[in-house]
Design brief:
CATH architecture of one domain in chain A: 3-Layer(aba) Sandwich
Helix content of chain A: 25-40%
Distance between the termini of chain B: 45 Å
Oligomer: heterodimer
Shape of chain B: globular
Strand order of the largest sheet of chain A: 5-6-7-3-8-9
CATH topology of one domain in chain A: Rossmann fold
Number of helices of chain B: 22
Strand content of chain B: under 5%
Largest interface: A-B, 43 and 36 residues
Order of helices and strands of chain A: EEEHEHEHHHEHEHEEHEHEEHEHH
Largest sheet of chain B: none
Number of helices of chain A: 12
Helix content of chain B: over 70%
Radius of gyration of chain A: 23 Å
Strand content of chain A: 25-35%
Largest sheet of chain A: 6 strands, mixed
CATH class of one domain in chain A: Alpha Beta
Order of helices and strands of chain B: HHHHHHHHHHHHHHHHHHHHHH
Structural class of chain A: alpha/beta
Number of strands of chain B: 0
């Protein structure tokens, strides 16, 4: 089956700044795809190319089998978009905006609309000028989630939402996935992506630096193992064990960073020394993310410089 | 912390943001005061000539309604007549714009919150806005008075014109200070303040054109006070006292309201709106209409009123222009044929056409503000086509500006034909014949929006250039090739004369071509 989104070698320049520098992205049908990267790494630029709002300077992109620039209006019947910074018409009410955007996409399901309004605790009769940032975000979320489309394009959709509402959003996203919808979820909130996404692409300075399932990515990195032992070893000694990357004392405990494939072997060694307490954690996405940005400088520049060079798109 | 802490800092900030605009406005009014006095002195070198030339004006109700009674049958009196009302309104608008911009606008945009969280007192924003407005008003008053002195007319009359400016500007400062406390929206505050100004204008216009006790109603209007200062006539300097008292009372009231309300809130809570959208709000066209219908309604009412006034003035135009110099000036201004009445109506319709062009440009440029704010992105991520979205505002700009000229033609025609000298149909036809020129302005705005979005506002510059070419081109003796750059130069001489058919066709082609290039370019460019 053809991927829902397929981009290869996307290039986009704004004057002398290069926002996208050969970006590749593949999103399969039915998956929630996390699109991770810091501010200014090119996430929004990519999304705006996928929506046909910007034209790529180079590379190849198809969305639902069509060209997003040429066939924008037809494609938009089959997708719903939530921008990260929602700007609304100040003199329209939230309910009016939801209805307008829904009708433009081909109709609103009143039952679904009411259900979402209740879930997100949004008062649709208020004028948009009086909504807070979080409430404006809810207007866009309700409008997008209440339309029956196969693809959701979500650009930092939870910015400004409180944790309770983030949870509501997670539940709605999970339901959408159960119904077989595809979602591209751009974010820099790692826990959100970790919970929701099947696969992840990490973007840095306009290029994808890593892509795959969380399990794939975790496989390449290290788990953290912390143990209290009845028969202590020095960190120096433990560091010599195969698969152990580093070891140190942490408040009387031994803290090890272990290749994921060697965790079983290390646990046997620890078992022989008498385990009193033990915690073992797979790498969090945050650690994966930091490792991408800390370990591999792009083209000789430090990662912060690379981030600052980008235009905020 | 004193409730006025930070006032001087905010005043400096306000001046830093507004110095060019405020300076330009002050200079513009001073130049107008000087220019009209100097021109009148050229036209009527002696008081006797002025008395003869202006005799008709004193009996003309339409002129009195527009400008107020003539202060004196002298050269200086005639020269200051228009400046009194124009200067009052201008000063009032300047004060209104400054006060609202630095109070309610700042609050609505959320910028004042950032400042108010610093060492800034509760009253500081309002106080600094009122101070800046008052300073601008007083500067305008002093410079206008000086400019009149420079033309060689009497000093006390010149100073009295300064008092006129002060009276209108200060009272409006107070009115706006109260209005911005009442509603939580910039637009709402503007409606209240400008509504009060409009009421003041209408009350004095009614009073001035009435007889008996009703005449005294002018004393209820602060614009009535301003005109009753009567520079070069009665020179009632003391009228500054009631103005100061009223301003003080309004500012005190504003302060009481300010002390009671929350930052960002008004005295009146905003009303909730409909929870679901009207069935018509289902397309870009429905949205464009919803966003712009209020503005079109306002312009339509304004054009109807203006049309009635212009038509009323036209009824007595033959009396005004018994002076051959004036008749000659009118003819040269318009290049008109036909009777003097036709020439006058043609000139006025051309002014109204420029106004309709301004409406068209403003309506078309809504595209740009929707785009740069990011709201267009939300629409264009739905199955709305680029051309369809552009057309939603573009068609409104075209149809709305054409509609305004129809309104103008009908009201001018009805009002002027009451005297029986002119047919409604001819006037409406003359008004409609200006529409191609109006549409060139709209086409230009669409062209700029499509090709060079960041320079869309240059459409305003083009419109200003057209006005300048029309008003000053002949005086500056510019060649016809330069004058012809303005679409309003190709309208022929209706009513009464011949329509410039090739010119109008050319304008139509230009309007369609510019709009088409704008649409094509917009379809090919990035959303910026």
């Amino acid at each position: 089956m053809a991927p829902v989104i397929e981009a290869a070698g996307l290039v986009k320049k704004f004057g002398s700044t290069t926002a996208l520098d050969g970006l590749d992205l593949t999103v399969h049908e039915g998956e929630v795809h996390g699109f991770l990267g810091p501010n200014g790494s090119g996430k929004s630029t990519t999304i705006r190319i996928l929506l046909g709002l910007l034209r790529a300077d180079g590379g190849h992109v198809t969305l639902l089998g069509a060209d997003p620039w040429r066939d924008a209006a037809e494609l938009h019947r089959r997708l719903a978009y939530v921008p990260g910074d929602v700007v609304l018409w100040p003199n329209l009410t939230g309910g009016e905006v939801i209805d307008l955007l829904g009708r433009l996409r081909g109709g609103v399901d009143p039952g679904r609309r009411a259900q979402l309004l209740e879930a997100f605790e949004l008062d649709p009769s208020k004028k948009c000028r009086s909504y807070s940032k979080g409430n404006r975000q809810k207007v866009a979320l309700v409008a997008a989630l209440s339309s029956d489309v196969p693809l959701l394009v979500l650009d930092e959709p939870t910015s400004g939402l409180d944790p309770l509402m983030e949870k509501v959003f997670q539940d709605e996203l999970a339901q959408a996935r159960v119904r077989g919808r595809t979602a591209l979820l751009s974010s820099h909130i790692l826990s959100e992506v970790e919970r929701a996404a099947d696969r992840v692409s990490i973007v840095r300075a306009g290029r994808i630096v890593d892509s795959g399932t969380l399990a794939d990515l975790r496989h390449l990195t290290r788990s953290s193992v912390v143990a209290t032992l009845s028969d202590p070893v020095t960190p120096g000694e433990a560091a010599q064990w195969p698969g152990v990357h580093s070891a140190r004392h942490d408040h009387g405990q031994l803290a090890l960073s272990v290749e994921t494939s060697s965790v079983g072997h290390v646990l046997q060694r620890l078992g022989a020394l008498g385990i009193e307490t033990l915690t073992c954690q797979p790498p969090t996405l945050e650690e994966l993310f930091l490792s991408q940005y800390a370990d591999r400088p792009v083209d000789g520049g430090s990662s912060t410089d690379a981030a600052q060079e980008q235009v905020p798109a | 912390m004193s409730s006025l802490a930070g006032t001087t800092t905010l005043l400096r900030l306000a001046w830093r943001r507004d110095r060019w605009v405020v300076s330009a406005c002050v200079v513009a009014l001073v130049a107008t005061a000087y220019g009209s006095m100097a021109a009148t002195r050229d036209l009527y070198p002696t008081d006797a000539a002025a008395a003869a030339g202006a005799a008709a004006m004193t009996d003309n109700a339409s002129l009195t309604a527009m400008y107020g009674p003539l202060p004196a049958l002298t050269t200086a009196g005639v020269g200051v007549l228009k400046t009194v009302m124009f200067g009052s309104l201008f000063s009032a608008f300047l004060a209104f714009a400054i006060v609202r911009r630095h109070t309610r606008t700042e609050e609505e945009e959320g910028r004042l919150e950032l400042l108010a969280a610093g060492a800034v007192g509760r009253r500081a924003a309002t106080a600094s806005a009122v101070l800046l407005a008052s300073l601008a008003v007083v500067a305008t008053a002093l410079l206008s008075a000086l400019s009149l002195v420079a033309t060689g007319v009497g000093v006390s009359g010149s100073l009295a014109l300064g008092v006129v400016v002060v009276v209108a500007g200060l009272v409006m400062t107070g009115v706006t200070a109260v209005a911005v406390q009442l509603t939580s929206t910039t637009r709402g505050a503007g409606g209240i303040a400008v509504g009060v100004l409009g009421l003041a204008y209408v009350v004095r216009a009614l009073a001035d054109t009435s007889t008996g006790a009703v005449r005294q109603l002018a004393w209820l209007s602060f614009l009535g006070w301003a005109e009753k200062v009567s520079p070069f006539g009665e020179n009632r300097f003391w009228l500054v006292l009631p103005a100061l008292a009223a301003t003080a009372a309004l500012l005190l009231a504003a302060d009481r309201l300010l002390q009671r309300r929350d930052l960002g809130a008004g005295l009146w809570a905003p009303r909730p709106g409909p929870a679901t959208a009207h069935p018509r709000l289902a397309s870009p066209r429905g949205l464009a209409w919803r966003l712009q219908r209020g503005s079109l309604l306002g312009w339509s009412v304004g054009y109807a009123v203006l049309g009635l006034v212009v038509g009323g003035v036209a009824r007595s135009v033959d009396q005004i222009a018994q002076d051959p110099a004036v008749e000659d000036m009118l003819r040269r201004m318009s290049g008109g044929q036909g009777t003097l009445l036709d020439v006058f109506l043609g000139t006025e319709l051309r002014f109204l056409a420029v106004g309709a062009g301004a409406y068209g440009v403003a309506t078309a440029l809504r595209l740009r503000s929707e785009e740069s704010s990011g709201r267009a992105e939300a629409l264009l991520a739905t199955p709305v086509r680029r051309a369809q979205w552009l057309a939603s505002h573009g068609v409104l700009a075209v149809a709305g500006s054409a509609w305004l000229m129809v309104v103008a033609g009908v009201t001018v025609g009805l009002s002027a034909s009451a005297a029986g000298d002119v047919g409604v149909v001819q006037v409406v036809a003359a008004a409609v014949a200006t529409v191609p020129a109006v549409l060139v302005c709209v086409g230009l705005a669409l062209l700029l929006f499509g090709l060079v979005p960041h320079w869309s506002a240059a459409a305003w510059g083009a419109l200003a250039l057209f006005v300048m070419l029309g008003e000053l081109g002949a005086i500056l003796r510019l060649p016809q090739s330069v004058l012809g750059l303005s679409p309003f130069d190709h309208l022929g001489s209706l009513p009464g004369g011949d329509a410039n058919v090739t010119g109008l066709l050319g304008l139509g082609v230009a309007a369609v071509a510019t709009a088409a290039v704008g649409v094509l370019a917009f379809r090919r460019r990035d959303l910026a």
